[in-house]
Amino acid sequence: MKRTTLFRALCALALVALSPAAFAACEFDIEVGDTLSYSVGSTMQVGKDCSEITVNLNHTGSLPVEAMGHNWVLTLTDDFQAVAQAGMGAGVAGNYLPADDQRIIAATDLIGGGQSTSITFDASVLDSSGAYTFFCSFPGHWAAMKGTLEFIN
Ligand code: CO
User: 22-152 maps to which CATH number?
Assistant: First the structure.
């Protein structure tokens, strides 16, 4: 009897440990530098059970924001090019994003070398069956500096 109870407890522990949800991230530390890439590459995997998503963006380069500004912006994949183009006139002060644009799900500030920033947003605004793209809205960056946000169990 005791062995059975212990066995069941161990099985429950193993299930928790092996569950993919245990490995799904809700918080991301992303490095950027004086190149057009994110340290996370072109895919970010978010856990379906995340209530909030946090992105910590750290610019380890040396160029100023006017020359090599980076941010992290999330939109539906269908919206990302239009949002990026609409933001080109906003300048550094406007984070190269259109103001009060409902298509922007989340966005960090635009930062330069040596700076860091962070954004936390409610994950319930995302639909796990939707297609989302993250990108840097600095002019000329978003064609290369982009990736997809995926959901895993
Ligand atoms: Co950039």
Answer: 2.60.40.420
